Amino acid sequence: MSEHPSFMPPNGNNNGHSSEAERALELENRLPLTGWQQEVNKGLEYGLEAADSIIDRTIPTFSRGELPHYAGINTFMKAPYLEDVRQVGNYDVAIVGIPHDSGTTYRPGTRFGPQGIRRISALYTPYNFEMGVDLREQITMCDVGDVFTIPGNNEKSFDQISKGVAHIFNSGAFPILLGGDHSIGFPTVRGICRHLGDKKVGIIHFDRHVDTQETDLDERMHTCPWFHATNMKNAPAKNLVQLGIGGWQVPRQGVKVCRERATNILTVTDITEMGLDAAADYAIERATDGTDCVWISFDIDCIDAGFVPGTGWPEPGGLLPREALGLLGKIIRKVPVCGIEVVEVSPPYDVSDMTSLMATRVICDSMAHLVKSGQLPRTRKPAYIHPEAQPELIAWT
Ligand SMILES: [Mn+2]
């Protein structure tokens, strides 16, 4: 017997208490296999029955669906590729790549982020043990491919991104964006705001960097998205929560804007000292105060640089992966999330796909928390989605 007070053996006598592992074993038992059976049937129909020597008759001749993990065409988690984006509203979740890195001011390469994330996402099964979620059984997902960005032109790319995000958002499908550098944060939120009417969105921003200056190197680079997003009346600065900020790469002109607009910042030390529950409560309270929905912008560099070498501005001293994932989950479970972007994955600087894998984990965990909190699948289009209109701007004094 262990003397550790919290130790509960998964299958031992635990006096009525249960460990996470024990609950996980029970949760799995409640999940259906309908989606898996449909995938097998489709595989056998489209991919032909296997050669006679294959004993497992669920295996087709041509790989269709999840298996083998190294085979097939890499959409995100091998979700169906939706060529006709007019049909996107038929799915619970739409994955879209934003291959844009013209906003980078140091390492480029995030134009390959969507490809890198899709490739390593093939490693994952749709099932998570601890949460007892099987995405294949519980939601429908499509991959709409990438927005057509214009290399070397941020503003034209921003216009494309806003239009694409607005289309997905308005369809009722839950948008999940694969970045792309963080300059895309402004056009994505602008796309959301075009369909908010007089409703408001809070932004929860995981990052080591504030990203709040007006321009950088004379343009709206990846250091600038929240200055421009919080210029829109639908995205108030008082509802911008910035988690994990700190270190030697936080430009002072951005800090000045955070102070003037009274954004809500927690450093890594704040988060670890107050604890994940209190940090999540702080983020939830600030982001939801007077708003109707919350946009999650997850810069992969909020995690310590040792875990995510493939990124634009790596900064040591960030969150541990389990802290970042834990905080993200605690937040998603309690706020009405209207979409998620994961940015700053730069595969050319990555090692063994570890940064792309972290991004995949962030996305899959997010979907599972949305399922566990009843936000997915959606039974109806959220009430905060309105007909298209240009967002009004705030006149800052
Ligand atoms: Mn960053």
TrEMBL record:
CDD domains: Agmatinase-like. The keyword Metal-binding applies. One of its GO terms (molecular function) is agmatinase activity. Keywords: Hydrolase, Metal-binding. It holds the Pfam family Arginase. Residues 1-22 are annotated as: Disordered. GO terms for biological process: putrescine biosynthetic process from arginine, via agmatine. PANTHER family: ARGINASE/AGMATINASE (PTHR11358), GUANIDINO ACID HYDROLASE, MITOCHONDRIAL (PTHR11358:SF26). Belongs to the arginase family. Agmatinase subfamily. This is Agmatinase.
